[in-house]
Design a protein that fits this description.
- The chain has 541 residues and is an alpha/beta fold.
- Helix content is 28%, strand content 26%.
- Strands 15, 16, 17, 18, 19, 20, 21 and 22 form an eight-stranded antiparallel sheet that branches.
- The longest helix is centred in the first third of the chain and has 17 residues, at 37-53.
- It starts with 9 loop residues before the first helix and ends in a 7-residue tail after the last helix.
- The mean pLDDT is 92.
Amino acid sequence: MVADKSGWVAGKILAEQARVRGDAPLIQFERGHMHTYGEVHALANRAGNGYARIGVGFGDNVAVMLNNRLEYLWSWFGLSRIGGVLVGINTALKGTFLTHVLGNTKARIGVFEPEFLPWLAEIEDTVPDMAVVYVPADVYDPDNLPSFKRIEVRCFDEVMDAPADEIAVEVSYRDIGMIMFTSGTTGPSKGALMPHGHLFLFGECMRVHLGMTDADIYYIPMPLFHAQGILMQFYATLITGGSAVLVKQFRATTWIDDIREHGATLANLLGVMNDFVLRQPEREEDRDNHLRMVCAVPVTDETMENLRARFAIPKFNEIFGMTEVNLPVCRPVEAPDEAGCSGKVWDEYFEVIIADPETDEEVATNEVGEILVRPKEPYCFMAGYNGMAERTVETWRNFWFHTGDAGRMDERGYVWYIDRIKDTIRRRGENISSFEVEAVFLDHEAVKECAAVAVKATEGGEDEVLICIILEDGVAAPNPEDLLDYAAPRMPYFAVPRYVDYVTEIPTTPTAKIQKNKLRDRGLSATAWDRDAAGYKVRRG
Protein backbone atom coordinates (compact mmCIF):
# COMPACT_ATOMS: atom_id res chain seq x y z
CA MET A 1 0.00 0.00 0.00
CA VAL A 2 1.43 3.36 -1.03
CA ALA A 3 1.60 5.57 2.05
CA ASP A 4 0.94 8.97 0.51
CA LYS A 5 -0.55 9.78 -2.88
CA SER A 6 -1.53 13.37 -2.02
CA GLY A 7 1.15 14.81 -4.29
CA TRP A 8 0.06 12.83 -7.36
CA VAL A 9 -1.42 15.87 -9.13
CA ALA A 10 0.34 17.55 -12.06
CA GLY A 11 -0.12 21.08 -10.71
CA LYS A 12 1.35 20.12 -7.33
CA ILE A 13 4.31 18.34 -8.90
CA LEU A 14 5.04 21.35 -11.10
CA ALA A 15 4.89 23.71 -8.11
CA GLU A 16 7.32 21.55 -6.14
CA GLN A 17 9.70 21.15 -9.08
CA ALA A 18 9.61 24.92 -9.67
CA ARG A 19 10.55 25.45 -6.02
CA VAL A 20 13.43 22.99 -6.21
CA ARG A 21 14.75 23.61 -9.73
CA GLY A 22 13.17 26.90 -10.81
CA ASP A 23 15.82 27.91 -13.37
CA ALA A 24 16.32 24.41 -14.81
CA PRO A 25 14.99 23.79 -18.37
CA LEU A 26 11.66 21.97 -18.73
CA ILE A 27 10.01 22.36 -22.15
CA GLN A 28 10.82 23.78 -25.56
CA PHE A 29 8.55 23.83 -28.63
CA GLU A 30 10.36 23.14 -31.91
CA ARG A 31 13.30 25.59 -31.94
CA GLY A 32 11.68 28.19 -29.73
CA HIS A 33 12.38 29.38 -26.20
CA MET A 34 13.28 26.73 -23.61
CA HIS A 35 10.91 27.38 -20.71
CA THR A 36 12.22 26.77 -17.21
CA TYR A 37 10.30 25.07 -14.42
CA GLY A 38 9.75 28.46 -12.81
CA GLU A 39 8.40 30.00 -16.01
CA VAL A 40 6.02 27.10 -16.62
CA HIS A 41 4.82 27.31 -13.01
CA ALA A 42 3.92 30.99 -13.51
CA LEU A 43 2.20 30.25 -16.85
CA ALA A 44 0.21 27.45 -15.20
CA ASN A 45 -1.01 29.83 -12.50
CA ARG A 46 -2.00 32.38 -15.14
CA ALA A 47 -3.91 29.74 -17.07
CA GLY A 48 -5.63 28.46 -13.93
CA ASN A 49 -6.64 31.93 -12.79
CA GLY A 50 -7.75 32.76 -16.33
CA TYR A 51 -9.92 29.66 -16.68
CA ALA A 52 -11.47 30.34 -13.28
CA ARG A 53 -12.20 33.93 -14.32
CA ILE A 54 -14.12 32.82 -17.42
CA GLY A 55 -16.27 30.47 -15.36
CA VAL A 56 -14.55 27.08 -15.36
CA GLY A 57 -15.35 25.45 -12.04
CA PHE A 58 -14.30 22.31 -10.22
CA GLY A 59 -15.14 19.26 -12.37
CA ASP A 60 -16.00 21.29 -15.48
CA ASN A 61 -14.87 19.81 -18.80
CA VAL A 62 -12.85 21.92 -21.25
CA ALA A 63 -12.52 20.57 -24.81
CA VAL A 64 -9.03 21.01 -26.23
CA MET A 65 -8.58 20.41 -29.96
CA LEU A 66 -5.08 21.67 -30.64
CA ASN A 67 -2.06 20.52 -32.55
CA ASN A 68 1.02 19.98 -30.42
CA ARG A 69 1.79 23.39 -28.94
CA LEU A 70 2.65 24.84 -25.55
CA GLU A 71 -0.84 26.24 -24.98
CA TYR A 72 -1.98 22.63 -24.65
CA LEU A 73 0.31 22.18 -21.65
CA TRP A 74 -0.57 25.53 -20.11
CA SER A 75 -4.24 24.51 -20.28
CA TRP A 76 -3.57 21.12 -18.68
CA PHE A 77 -1.60 22.61 -15.81
CA GLY A 78 -4.02 25.47 -15.32
CA LEU A 79 -7.04 23.18 -15.20
CA SER A 80 -5.13 20.86 -12.85
CA ARG A 81 -4.73 23.80 -10.45
CA ILE A 82 -8.46 24.59 -10.27
CA GLY A 83 -9.95 21.09 -10.55
CA GLY A 84 -11.02 21.44 -14.19
CA VAL A 85 -10.96 18.47 -16.57
CA LEU A 86 -9.08 18.52 -19.86
CA VAL A 87 -10.88 16.70 -22.67
CA GLY A 88 -8.24 15.93 -25.30
CA ILE A 89 -9.77 15.70 -28.77
CA ASN A 90 -8.13 13.89 -31.64
CA THR A 91 -7.39 16.58 -34.23
CA ALA A 92 -8.77 14.45 -37.06
CA LEU A 93 -12.31 14.21 -35.65
CA LYS A 94 -15.16 15.80 -37.53
CA GLY A 95 -18.82 15.21 -38.32
CA THR A 96 -20.60 12.75 -36.04
CA PHE A 97 -17.26 11.73 -34.49
CA LEU A 98 -16.73 15.26 -33.16
CA THR A 99 -20.38 15.64 -32.23
CA HIS A 100 -20.18 12.54 -30.07
CA VAL A 101 -17.13 13.69 -28.09
CA LEU A 102 -18.50 17.17 -27.44
CA GLY A 103 -21.98 15.87 -26.70
CA ASN A 104 -20.73 13.20 -24.34
CA THR A 105 -18.64 15.62 -22.27
CA LYS A 106 -21.06 18.59 -22.52
CA ALA A 107 -18.11 20.98 -22.61
CA ARG A 108 -19.13 24.65 -22.57
CA ILE A 109 -15.65 25.97 -23.33
CA GLY A 110 -13.17 24.82 -25.93
CA VAL A 111 -9.69 25.67 -27.16
CA PHE A 112 -9.36 25.04 -30.89
CA GLU A 113 -6.93 25.57 -33.73
CA PRO A 114 -8.54 27.84 -36.34
CA GLU A 115 -8.21 25.09 -38.96
CA PHE A 116 -10.72 22.97 -37.01
CA LEU A 117 -13.32 25.72 -36.54
CA PRO A 118 -15.09 24.99 -39.87
CA TRP A 119 -15.70 21.43 -38.63
CA LEU A 120 -17.18 22.84 -35.42
CA ALA A 121 -19.36 25.27 -37.38
CA GLU A 122 -20.77 22.38 -39.41
CA ILE A 123 -22.00 20.59 -36.27
CA GLU A 124 -22.91 23.64 -34.19
CA ASP A 125 -26.60 22.70 -34.00
CA THR A 126 -25.71 19.27 -32.58
CA VAL A 127 -23.55 20.55 -29.70
CA PRO A 128 -25.84 22.94 -27.76
CA ASP A 129 -23.60 23.01 -24.67
CA MET A 130 -20.60 24.51 -26.46
CA ALA A 131 -20.68 28.28 -25.93
CA VAL A 132 -17.20 29.79 -26.29
CA VAL A 133 -14.11 28.67 -28.17
CA TYR A 134 -10.67 30.20 -27.66
CA VAL A 135 -8.01 30.27 -30.39
CA PRO A 136 -4.25 30.56 -29.66
CA ALA A 137 -3.06 34.14 -30.10
CA ASP A 138 -0.43 33.42 -32.76
CA VAL A 139 -3.09 32.04 -35.13
CA TYR A 140 -6.10 34.11 -34.05
CA ASP A 141 -7.50 36.19 -36.92
CA PRO A 142 -10.93 37.68 -36.10
CA ASP A 143 -11.40 38.70 -39.73
CA ASN A 144 -11.00 35.18 -41.04
CA LEU A 145 -13.32 33.02 -38.97
CA PRO A 146 -16.15 30.73 -40.09
CA SER A 147 -19.68 31.92 -39.43
CA PHE A 148 -21.25 30.64 -36.21
CA LYS A 149 -24.89 31.11 -35.24
CA ARG A 150 -24.31 30.98 -31.50
CA ILE A 151 -20.78 29.92 -30.49
CA GLU A 152 -18.40 32.79 -29.70
CA VAL A 153 -14.78 32.70 -30.85
CA ARG A 154 -12.21 34.60 -28.77
CA CYS A 155 -8.45 34.89 -28.39
CA PHE A 156 -6.73 32.55 -25.91
CA ASP A 157 -4.83 35.57 -24.58
CA GLU A 158 -8.06 36.41 -22.70
CA VAL A 159 -7.40 33.26 -20.65
CA MET A 160 -3.67 33.83 -20.22
CA ASP A 161 -4.05 37.53 -19.39
CA ALA A 162 -4.47 36.73 -15.71
CA PRO A 163 -2.17 37.10 -12.71
CA ALA A 164 0.33 34.39 -11.79
CA ASP A 165 -0.95 34.39 -8.22
CA GLU A 166 -0.86 31.07 -6.40
CA ILE A 167 -4.13 29.13 -6.48
CA ALA A 168 -5.57 27.75 -3.26
CA VAL A 169 -8.01 25.18 -4.73
CA GLU A 170 -7.33 21.74 -3.24
CA VAL A 171 -7.19 19.08 -5.97
CA SER A 172 -6.78 15.42 -5.02
CA TYR A 173 -5.35 12.38 -6.79
CA ARG A 174 -8.91 11.03 -6.51
CA ASP A 175 -10.38 13.80 -8.68
CA ILE A 176 -10.82 13.41 -12.44
CA GLY A 177 -8.06 15.22 -14.34
CA MET A 178 -8.64 14.18 -17.95
CA ILE A 179 -11.04 12.46 -20.29
CA MET A 180 -9.48 10.56 -23.20
CA PHE A 181 -11.58 8.82 -25.81
CA THR A 182 -10.93 5.24 -26.86
CA SER A 183 -12.52 3.46 -29.78
CA GLY A 184 -15.71 1.49 -29.49
CA THR A 185 -16.72 -1.64 -31.36
CA THR A 186 -20.43 -2.17 -30.76
CA GLY A 187 -20.98 1.50 -29.96
CA PRO A 188 -19.46 4.98 -30.16
CA SER A 189 -16.04 5.85 -28.77
CA LYS A 190 -15.86 5.87 -24.99
CA GLY A 191 -14.47 8.67 -22.83
CA ALA A 192 -12.21 7.22 -20.14
CA LEU A 193 -12.48 9.15 -16.86
CA MET A 194 -8.89 9.47 -15.66
CA PRO A 195 -8.21 10.44 -12.03
CA HIS A 196 -5.04 12.39 -11.26
CA GLY A 197 -3.57 9.29 -9.60
CA HIS A 198 -4.09 7.38 -12.83
CA LEU A 199 -2.40 10.14 -14.86
CA PHE A 200 0.57 10.22 -12.49
CA LEU A 201 1.31 6.51 -12.79
CA PHE A 202 1.65 6.74 -16.58
CA GLY A 203 4.59 9.08 -16.09
CA GLU A 204 5.95 7.31 -13.03
CA CYS A 205 6.01 4.01 -14.89
CA MET A 206 8.20 5.49 -17.62
CA ARG A 207 10.48 7.14 -15.07
CA VAL A 208 11.05 3.83 -13.31
CA HIS A 209 11.30 1.49 -16.28
CA LEU A 210 13.37 3.76 -18.52
CA GLY A 211 15.67 4.63 -15.63
CA MET A 212 15.06 8.33 -16.23
CA THR A 213 17.18 11.03 -14.55
CA ASP A 214 17.13 14.82 -14.55
CA ALA A 215 19.84 14.73 -17.23
CA ASP A 216 17.47 13.14 -19.75
CA ILE A 217 16.00 15.09 -22.66
CA TYR A 218 12.83 13.53 -24.11
CA TYR A 219 11.99 14.09 -27.78
CA ILE A 220 8.18 14.29 -28.14
CA PRO A 221 6.54 14.17 -31.59
CA MET A 222 3.57 12.13 -30.31
CA PRO A 223 0.22 13.99 -30.21
CA LEU A 224 -0.69 15.43 -26.83
CA PHE A 225 -4.27 14.16 -27.12
CA HIS A 226 -2.86 10.64 -26.63
CA ALA A 227 -1.40 9.23 -23.43
CA GLN A 228 1.94 8.62 -25.17
CA GLY A 229 2.77 12.27 -25.70
CA ILE A 230 1.33 14.05 -22.69
CA LEU A 231 1.66 11.36 -19.99
CA MET A 232 4.24 8.74 -20.93
CA GLN A 233 6.69 11.30 -22.29
CA PHE A 234 6.02 14.79 -20.93
CA TYR A 235 4.59 13.89 -17.50
CA ALA A 236 7.46 11.43 -17.00
CA THR A 237 9.86 14.28 -17.75
CA LEU A 238 8.16 16.57 -15.23
CA ILE A 239 8.17 13.93 -12.49
CA THR A 240 11.84 13.16 -13.12
CA GLY A 241 13.03 16.77 -13.32
CA GLY A 242 14.47 16.49 -16.83
CA SER A 243 13.61 18.44 -19.96
CA ALA A 244 11.73 17.79 -23.18
CA VAL A 245 11.46 19.04 -26.75
CA LEU A 246 7.96 19.09 -28.20
CA VAL A 247 7.43 19.23 -31.97
CA LYS A 248 4.20 19.75 -33.90
CA GLN A 249 4.12 16.26 -35.35
CA PHE A 250 6.17 13.20 -36.18
CA ARG A 251 8.33 13.72 -39.27
CA ALA A 252 10.32 10.69 -40.36
CA THR A 253 12.49 12.87 -42.61
CA THR A 254 13.84 14.92 -39.71
CA TRP A 255 13.43 12.48 -36.81
CA ILE A 256 17.11 11.76 -36.19
CA ASP A 257 18.17 15.30 -37.16
CA ASP A 258 15.87 16.77 -34.50
CA ILE A 259 17.12 14.29 -31.92
CA ARG A 260 20.72 15.18 -32.72
CA GLU A 261 20.11 18.94 -32.71
CA HIS A 262 18.38 18.91 -29.33
CA GLY A 263 20.69 16.35 -27.73
CA ALA A 264 17.72 14.11 -26.92
CA THR A 265 18.48 10.99 -24.90
CA LEU A 266 15.02 9.37 -25.05
CA ALA A 267 12.45 8.87 -27.82
CA ASN A 268 9.39 6.73 -28.55
CA LEU A 269 8.43 5.01 -31.79
CA LEU A 270 4.98 3.55 -32.33
CA GLY A 271 4.01 0.97 -34.92
CA VAL A 272 4.68 1.95 -38.50
CA MET A 273 6.81 4.91 -37.35
CA ASN A 274 9.65 2.38 -37.06
CA ASP A 275 9.40 1.55 -40.75
CA PHE A 276 9.02 5.20 -41.79
CA VAL A 277 12.26 6.11 -40.02
CA LEU A 278 14.16 3.18 -41.52
CA ARG A 279 12.97 4.03 -45.04
CA GLN A 280 14.78 7.37 -45.00
CA PRO A 281 18.06 7.59 -46.94
CA GLU A 282 20.90 6.31 -44.78
CA ARG A 283 23.62 8.83 -43.86
CA GLU A 284 26.92 8.66 -42.05
CA GLU A 285 25.74 11.08 -39.36
CA ASP A 286 22.76 8.87 -38.38
CA ARG A 287 24.84 7.33 -35.59
CA ASP A 288 25.88 10.75 -34.29
CA ASN A 289 23.30 11.22 -31.52
CA HIS A 290 22.88 10.99 -27.73
CA LEU A 291 20.04 8.46 -27.62
CA ARG A 292 20.44 6.03 -24.73
CA MET A 293 17.07 4.29 -25.06
CA VAL A 294 14.08 4.13 -27.41
CA CYS A 295 10.66 2.84 -26.36
CA ALA A 296 9.52 1.15 -29.59
CA VAL A 297 6.13 -0.60 -29.62
CA PRO A 298 5.84 -3.08 -31.20
CA VAL A 299 9.02 -4.22 -32.92
CA THR A 300 10.26 -7.40 -34.56
CA ASP A 301 13.78 -8.72 -34.03
CA GLU A 302 14.71 -7.49 -37.50
CA THR A 303 13.31 -3.98 -36.96
CA MET A 304 14.99 -3.61 -33.58
CA GLU A 305 18.37 -4.69 -34.89
CA ASN A 306 18.04 -2.42 -37.94
CA LEU A 307 17.28 0.54 -35.68
CA ARG A 308 20.17 -0.36 -33.39
CA ALA A 309 22.67 -0.67 -36.24
CA ARG A 310 21.45 2.39 -38.12
CA PHE A 311 21.23 4.86 -35.20
CA ALA A 312 23.58 3.30 -32.62
CA ILE A 313 20.74 2.92 -30.10
CA PRO A 314 22.15 1.04 -27.11
CA LYS A 315 18.88 -0.01 -25.45
CA PHE A 316 15.22 -0.62 -26.32
CA ASN A 317 12.10 -0.97 -24.22
CA GLU A 318 8.54 -2.14 -24.78
CA ILE A 319 5.52 -1.64 -22.55
CA PHE A 320 1.91 -2.86 -22.55
CA GLY A 321 -0.85 -0.48 -21.57
CA MET A 322 -4.17 1.10 -22.39
CA THR A 323 -5.79 4.44 -21.64
CA GLU A 324 -8.14 2.67 -19.26
CA VAL A 325 -5.67 0.50 -17.36
CA ASN A 326 -2.42 2.50 -17.30
CA LEU A 327 0.89 0.65 -17.94
CA PRO A 328 0.54 -2.57 -15.94
CA VAL A 329 3.23 -4.52 -17.84
CA CYS A 330 6.67 -2.93 -18.17
CA ARG A 331 10.13 -4.15 -19.06
CA PRO A 332 12.66 -3.52 -16.25
CA VAL A 333 15.68 -1.42 -17.20
CA GLU A 334 18.05 -4.32 -16.60
CA ALA A 335 16.01 -6.80 -18.68
CA PRO A 336 17.43 -7.94 -22.03
CA ASP A 337 16.07 -6.50 -25.27
CA GLU A 338 13.54 -9.03 -26.55
CA ALA A 339 11.36 -7.92 -29.45
CA GLY A 340 7.69 -8.51 -28.68
CA CYS A 341 8.21 -8.85 -24.92
CA SER A 342 6.28 -6.22 -22.96
CA GLY A 343 7.98 -7.00 -19.67
CA LYS A 344 6.85 -8.05 -16.22
CA VAL A 345 3.76 -7.11 -14.26
CA TRP A 346 4.32 -3.86 -12.34
CA ASP A 347 3.07 -5.66 -9.27
CA GLU A 348 3.47 -2.73 -6.91
CA TYR A 349 0.32 -1.31 -8.46
CA PHE A 350 -1.34 -3.94 -10.68
CA GLU A 351 -2.38 -7.56 -11.00
CA VAL A 352 -2.34 -9.20 -14.44
CA ILE A 353 -3.34 -12.68 -15.56
CA ILE A 354 -3.68 -14.40 -18.93
CA ALA A 355 -7.14 -15.97 -19.06
CA ASP A 356 -9.43 -17.95 -21.29
CA PRO A 357 -11.57 -15.23 -22.94
CA GLU A 358 -14.67 -17.40 -22.63
CA THR A 359 -14.35 -18.46 -18.98
CA ASP A 360 -12.01 -15.83 -17.43
CA GLU A 361 -10.06 -18.72 -15.89
CA GLU A 362 -6.27 -18.37 -15.87
CA VAL A 363 -4.49 -20.40 -18.56
CA ALA A 364 -1.25 -22.32 -18.27
CA THR A 365 2.21 -20.79 -18.65
CA ASN A 366 3.00 -19.85 -22.27
CA GLU A 367 -0.60 -20.46 -23.34
CA VAL A 368 -2.24 -17.62 -25.27
CA GLY A 369 -5.27 -15.99 -23.70
CA GLU A 370 -6.78 -12.57 -22.95
CA ILE A 371 -4.79 -10.08 -20.87
CA LEU A 372 -6.86 -9.19 -17.78
CA VAL A 373 -5.86 -6.38 -15.41
CA ARG A 374 -6.96 -4.90 -12.08
CA PRO A 375 -5.39 -2.24 -9.83
CA LYS A 376 -3.97 -2.70 -6.37
CA GLU A 377 -4.23 0.99 -5.51
CA PRO A 378 -7.42 3.10 -5.61
CA TYR A 379 -7.60 5.81 -8.31
CA CYS A 380 -4.70 4.33 -10.32
CA PHE A 381 -7.13 3.08 -12.98
CA MET A 382 -9.82 4.76 -15.00
CA ALA A 383 -12.96 5.59 -13.01
CA GLY A 384 -15.25 4.37 -15.78
CA TYR A 385 -16.50 5.59 -19.15
CA ASN A 386 -18.10 9.04 -19.07
CA GLY A 387 -21.88 8.75 -19.32
CA MET A 388 -21.63 5.09 -20.36
CA ALA A 389 -22.27 2.96 -17.29
CA GLU A 390 -23.25 -0.05 -19.39
CA ARG A 391 -19.97 0.04 -21.30
CA THR A 392 -18.06 0.30 -18.03
CA VAL A 393 -19.80 -2.81 -16.69
CA GLU A 394 -19.14 -4.70 -19.94
CA THR A 395 -15.39 -4.30 -19.61
CA TRP A 396 -15.40 -5.55 -16.00
CA ARG A 397 -16.32 -9.18 -15.44
CA ASN A 398 -15.40 -11.41 -12.53
CA PHE A 399 -13.57 -8.45 -10.98
CA TRP A 400 -11.12 -8.09 -13.89
CA PHE A 401 -10.83 -5.46 -16.59
CA HIS A 402 -10.90 -7.19 -19.98
CA THR A 403 -8.39 -5.55 -22.30
CA GLY A 404 -9.52 -7.42 -25.40
CA ASP A 405 -5.85 -8.11 -26.16
CA ALA A 406 -4.26 -11.54 -26.50
CA GLY A 407 -0.97 -12.40 -24.84
CA ARG A 408 0.99 -15.10 -23.07
CA MET A 409 3.09 -15.19 -19.91
CA ASP A 410 6.31 -17.19 -19.95
CA GLU A 411 7.92 -19.15 -17.13
CA ARG A 412 9.88 -16.04 -16.02
CA GLY A 413 6.68 -14.04 -15.59
CA TYR A 414 7.30 -11.96 -18.73
CA VAL A 415 4.25 -11.02 -20.82
CA TRP A 416 4.29 -11.24 -24.60
CA TYR A 417 1.67 -9.29 -26.53
CA ILE A 418 0.16 -11.30 -29.40
CA ASP A 419 -2.75 -9.45 -31.03
CA ARG A 420 -6.21 -8.02 -30.43
CA ILE A 421 -9.16 -10.23 -29.59
CA LYS A 422 -11.89 -7.60 -29.78
CA ASP A 423 -13.13 -5.84 -32.92
CA THR A 424 -11.24 -2.61 -32.39
CA ILE A 425 -9.16 -1.60 -35.40
CA ARG A 426 -5.73 -0.07 -34.83
CA ARG A 427 -4.11 1.75 -37.74
CA ARG A 428 -1.04 4.00 -37.71
CA GLY A 429 -1.18 4.31 -33.93
CA GLU A 430 -4.88 5.26 -33.88
CA ASN A 431 -7.69 3.17 -32.43
CA ILE A 432 -10.68 3.18 -34.77
CA SER A 433 -14.28 2.46 -33.84
CA SER A 434 -15.74 0.02 -36.36
CA PHE A 435 -19.18 1.10 -35.19
CA GLU A 436 -18.53 4.75 -36.08
CA VAL A 437 -17.03 3.87 -39.46
CA GLU A 438 -20.06 1.75 -40.27
CA ALA A 439 -22.43 4.51 -39.18
CA VAL A 440 -21.01 6.85 -41.84
CA PHE A 441 -21.43 4.34 -44.66
CA LEU A 442 -24.92 3.30 -43.53
CA ASP A 443 -26.04 6.88 -44.18
CA HIS A 444 -25.20 6.47 -47.88
CA GLU A 445 -28.31 5.86 -49.94
CA ALA A 446 -26.84 2.82 -51.72
CA VAL A 447 -25.74 0.96 -48.58
CA LYS A 448 -28.08 -1.54 -46.93
CA GLU A 449 -25.66 -3.25 -44.53
CA CYS A 450 -21.95 -2.98 -43.86
CA ALA A 451 -19.16 -4.17 -41.58
CA ALA A 452 -15.75 -2.62 -40.96
CA VAL A 453 -12.90 -4.90 -39.89
CA ALA A 454 -9.13 -4.91 -39.63
CA VAL A 455 -7.13 -6.80 -42.25
CA LYS A 456 -3.45 -7.16 -42.99
CA ALA A 457 -2.25 -5.77 -46.32
CA THR A 458 0.98 -7.75 -46.00
CA GLU A 459 2.13 -10.58 -43.79
CA GLY A 460 3.14 -9.09 -40.45
CA GLY A 461 2.04 -5.61 -41.50
CA GLU A 462 -0.16 -3.14 -39.64
CA ASP A 463 -3.94 -3.17 -39.69
CA GLU A 464 -5.78 -1.64 -42.61
CA VAL A 465 -9.52 -0.96 -42.69
CA LEU A 466 -11.80 -3.07 -44.89
CA ILE A 467 -15.45 -2.10 -45.35
CA CYS A 468 -17.73 -4.90 -46.56
CA ILE A 469 -20.95 -3.57 -48.08
CA ILE A 470 -24.29 -5.08 -48.99
CA LEU A 471 -26.12 -2.78 -51.40
CA GLU A 472 -29.77 -1.82 -51.31
CA ASP A 473 -31.93 -4.03 -53.50
CA GLY A 474 -31.75 -3.05 -57.17
CA VAL A 475 -29.05 -0.43 -56.63
CA ALA A 476 -25.97 -0.40 -58.83
CA ALA A 477 -22.63 -0.48 -57.06
CA PRO A 478 -21.21 3.04 -56.70
CA ASN A 479 -17.70 3.65 -57.94
CA PRO A 480 -15.48 3.06 -54.86
CA GLU A 481 -13.83 6.46 -55.37
CA ASP A 482 -17.25 8.13 -55.23
CA LEU A 483 -18.13 6.18 -52.10
CA LEU A 484 -14.95 7.35 -50.36
CA ASP A 485 -15.55 10.91 -51.60
CA TYR A 486 -18.81 10.71 -49.66
CA ALA A 487 -17.31 9.14 -46.52
CA ALA A 488 -13.97 10.94 -46.18
CA PRO A 489 -15.36 14.39 -45.26
CA ARG A 490 -17.46 12.74 -42.55
CA MET A 491 -14.72 10.87 -40.66
CA PRO A 492 -11.11 11.18 -39.53
CA TYR A 493 -8.62 10.63 -42.35
CA PHE A 494 -7.07 7.63 -40.56
CA ALA A 495 -10.45 5.84 -40.36
CA VAL A 496 -11.21 6.00 -44.10
CA PRO A 497 -11.11 2.40 -45.34
CA ARG A 498 -8.29 1.34 -47.61
CA TYR A 499 -10.36 -1.55 -48.98
CA VAL A 500 -13.96 -1.61 -50.25
CA ASP A 501 -15.65 -4.94 -50.96
CA TYR A 502 -19.21 -5.29 -52.26
CA VAL A 503 -20.59 -8.56 -50.89
CA THR A 504 -23.89 -10.40 -50.99
CA GLU A 505 -23.71 -11.69 -47.42
CA ILE A 506 -22.17 -10.69 -44.09
CA PRO A 507 -21.92 -13.55 -41.56
CA THR A 508 -24.07 -13.12 -38.45
CA THR A 509 -24.95 -15.05 -35.32
CA PRO A 510 -28.49 -16.39 -34.72
CA THR A 511 -29.12 -13.14 -32.80
CA ALA A 512 -28.11 -11.07 -35.86
CA LYS A 513 -24.74 -9.93 -34.46
CA ILE A 514 -22.10 -9.56 -37.15
CA GLN A 515 -19.39 -12.23 -36.85
CA LYS A 516 -16.44 -9.99 -37.54
CA ASN A 517 -14.00 -12.69 -36.56
CA LYS A 518 -15.05 -14.58 -39.70
CA LEU A 519 -14.55 -11.50 -41.86
CA ARG A 520 -11.11 -10.92 -40.32
CA ASP A 521 -10.14 -14.56 -40.78
CA ARG A 522 -11.26 -14.45 -44.40
CA GLY A 523 -9.09 -11.40 -45.03
CA LEU A 524 -9.01 -9.74 -48.42
CA SER A 525 -11.01 -11.30 -51.21
CA ALA A 526 -10.19 -11.11 -54.89
CA THR A 527 -13.00 -8.55 -55.34
CA ALA A 528 -11.76 -6.06 -52.74
CA TRP A 529 -10.87 -2.66 -54.19
CA ASP A 530 -7.62 -1.14 -52.91
CA ARG A 531 -7.54 2.65 -52.75
CA ASP A 532 -3.73 2.70 -52.59
CA ALA A 533 -3.40 0.61 -55.73
CA ALA A 534 -5.96 2.86 -57.43
CA GLY A 535 -4.02 5.98 -56.43
CA TYR A 536 -6.86 7.44 -54.33
CA LYS A 537 -5.58 10.03 -51.87
CA VAL A 538 -7.35 10.84 -48.59
CA ARG A 539 -7.03 14.49 -47.63
CA ARG A 540 -6.60 15.33 -43.95
CA GLY A 541 -8.65 18.50 -44.06
